[in-house]
Amino acid sequence: xxxEKEFPNLDNSEKKHDExxxxxxxFEKKAEELATEFSVDKDDVMIIFAEIQNRLLDKKSFGSxxxxxxxxxxxxxxxxxxxxxxxxQYVRSELEKEKSQEIASTDSLTRLLNRRAxxxxxxxxxxxxxxxxxEKSTEEPKPFAMIMIDIDHFKSVNDSFGHPAGDRVIExxxxxxxxxxxxxxxxxxxxxxxxxxxxxxxxxxxxxxAERIRQDIENIDLSELGIDTExxxxxxxxxxxxxxxxNEEDIEKALGDMKKRADDALYVSKDSGRNQVQVSDK
Length: 282
Prior knowledge:
There is one protein chain. By secondary structure, the protein is α+β, with helices and mostly antiparallel strands. It folds into 2 domains: 15-101, no CATH class; 115-279, Reverse transcriptase/Diguanylate cyclase domain (Alpha-Beta Plaits), CATH 3.30.70.270. It has 9 helices and 5 strands, in the order αααααβααββαβαβ. It has helices at residues 17-38, 42-58, 65-77, 81-105, 115-133, 154-161, 163-180, 203-218, 251-271, and strands at residues 145-151, 186-191, 194-199, 237-243, 277-279. The protein has a 5-stranded mixed β-sheet, with helices on both faces. A hairpin with a 2-residue loop joins β2 (186-191) and β3 (194-199). The chain is flat, with a radius of gyration of 25 Å. It starts with 16 loop residues before the first helix and ends with a strand. The model is unreliable at 1-23 (pLDDT under 50).
């Protein structure tokens, strides 16, 4: 950990234009290198750098992202080589920490959340709901719901076209789900060919999103996945939807009940002919 004393004092003295531009160029180059190495946006690297400067220097506040970027660039131009090396090492360690957390919570095939991460998120959403339900809270509890998604007749894809084709189908379905949900929703691979979505909204919002997902899965072009469309015309999925019903005495039981109701609704979809959305009747 670098102490505050090891960093230069950021006074308000003017720097020559070419010195500032040189600092910005160096920063941009290093930020791009780290962004490429860790597969993140360059702006994310810039934000981490600026936050480190804020913490270790003078807690400077910024009125805009442009102002922050200007501060970061000028700050870099005032760092000597040794200090510059250490601060970039700090940025690297922050990126490595974020990357390891992402790997631990992400399904490697689909890049969706894995089941463990989904369960953690569900508990977090339920706890927020509980806090907002208390008499002391000034916030109204926000409803949320769960969509369970299962690819129809998936075993026949593996049997007819091989497991690599099956993996491509799962990847394509995951991509459809990612593109169909909103920024506040969370999607996960629940296991095998089963996916799940936590919906930031009530049962009607969840049903609408589920129907959009169902339609988009049905529209996947199998020829682009290397599957003979004469043997398999399309991929479909069955979906079940349930809304969270809070139980202050036992939050985990309330979550378990929602999962079961969503799963039961999914199997009603299966039993009713597949390729449809069914909503839990509670």
